Amino acid sequence: MAESSITESSIKAALEERLKATHVKVQDMSGGCGQAFTTLIVSPEFAGKNSLKRHRLVNAALKEEIAQIHAWTAKCQTPEEYQKEKAATGGNDGPSFEGTSGGKVEGVSQ
Amino acid sequence: MSTIKDITTLEDWAQHLASLPPTTLLIISFHAPWAAPCAQMATVLSTLASEYPVTEPPSTSWVAIDAEELSDVSENYNVTAVPFLVLVRDGKVLETVSGSSAVKVRDAIETHAKGTSASAGPTVNGTNGIAASVEAKEVNTAPEDPVKKKEELFKRLGDLVKAAPVMLFMKGTPSEPKCGFSRQLVAILRENAVKYGFFNILADDEVRQGLKEYADWPTYPQLWVDGELMGGLDIVKEELASDPDFLKSYSVKADVAATS
């Protein structure tokens, strides 16, 4: 399978531009092949929207990218929620790695 | 358009059999109310049936039988698992399809409905089947208009997402998931003792692509609740994190008291 031209930075840039994201963390889980991404997206645009609507916003913003990649996981938070979670978890604010393999091993601290 | 007739007594069954002309293709669907894939198969079959016009004499006859209620009939046709489809013409069993592959069921019915199996061997092997349906397509009087096809597909999807209060469209089956995210979602549903119907989108490419458009959602697995898209794995996890009881009303525990 050919590599896609999608990279962590291209996704980050797209989100910052199209969703006014204030904080984005993107991890390529496919070992650099640009095929699987897990993300954390913080944007004020999520305020007042339920989970489904937030994801739809992201899907619309990254329509072409998502259509090309094989696996996609996103955590969508407003800046307030992000700050709250950061405080509660003592800085563990990364995207979810649950259930993935080939990425970071669970329990590894930054 | 044909509809599926529920046969509930042996008398009805005998009467129905006796009334069939030898040219009619009899499509028997064996089901059990407790088996989730049967709900999905019922939807697939009623959609298929609606594509066959009622003719005189009837070209097709569609019946549904509860495999446990009418166990004599099930034994007659060697039904050991549900859903189970039996195709009969002039008293002879032409083909059976076990399991919930919508593709296999559709192919089997389309092949035999054209009535071209009169010649050669009684069983349908790969090449015969393909030859029959290629021939049949030329004689097909139903419009191949793409707009109508899409309307029909969307109607079919509309029924499919409501086949059960909780419907999971996944890659693979709950016992054999073919993707990490699908596997995780199955595990979550199991942990929460949720009663759900499932559809293996790897077995039906029309649904696989069509549902992405119908739902305006690009990925699988997809969880639908009460006919509406809930979302994928991350959304379900998020909802559970903020409200651990959100799937409670769909759990198996709700009707434990009713079972024997």
From TrEMBL, chain A:
- Record GO biological process: intracellular iron ion homeostasis; protein maturation
Protein's recorded name: Bola protein
- The signal peptide annotation in the UniProt record is none
Query: Record's family?
Result: Belongs to the BolA/IbaG family.
Give a single Pfam family match: BolA
- The region called Disordered is annotated at 80-110
SUPFAM superfamilies attached to this UniProt entry: BolA-like
Q: Enumerate the InterPro entries for this protein.
A: BOL2 (IPR045115), BolA (IPR002634), BolA-like_sf (IPR036065)
Question: Taxonomy-wise, where does this protein's organism fall, top ranks first?
Answer: Eukaryota, Fungi, Dikarya, Ascomycota, Pezizomycotina
Query: Where is there biased composition of kind Gly residues?
Result: 100-110
Q: Which GO terms describe its cellular component?
A: cytosol; nucleus
Gene Ontology terms, MF aspect: 2 iron, 2 sulfur cluster binding
Automatic annotation (TrEMBL), chain B:
**Taxonomic lineage of the native organism:** Eukaryota, Fungi, Dikarya, Ascomycota, Pezizomycotina
Q: What InterPro entries does the record point to? A: Glutaredoxin (IPR002109), GRX_PICOT-like (IPR033658), Monothiol_GRX-rel (IPR004480), Thioredoxin-like_sf (IPR036249), Thioredoxin_domain (IPR013766)
For this UniProt record, give its keywords in alphabetical order, as a comma-separated list: Iron, Iron-sulfur, Metal-binding
Q: Where is the Thioredoxin domain?
A: 1-114
Q: Which Pfam families match?
A: Glutaredoxin, Thioredoxin
Matching PANTHER family: GLUTAREDOXIN FAMILY MEMBER, GLUTAREDOXIN-3
Q: Which residues form the signal peptide?
A: none
Gene Ontology MF terms in the entry: 2 iron, 2 sulfur cluster binding; disulfide oxidoreductase activity; metal ion binding
Supply the source organism for this entry: Cercophora newfieldiana
Q: Which family does the UniProt entry place this protein in?
A: Belongs to the glutaredoxin family. Monothiol subfamily.
Can you name this protein?
Thioredoxin-like protein
User: What's in the GO CC field?
Assistant: cytosol; nucleus
Q: Does the keyword Iron apply?
A: yes
Q: What's a single GO BP term from this record? A: intracellular iron ion homeostasis
Function, in words: Monothiol glutaredoxin involved in the biogenesis of iron-sulfur clusters. Binds one iron-sulfur cluster per dimer. The iron-sulfur cluster is bound between subunits, and is complexed by a bound glutathione and a cysteine residue from each subunit.
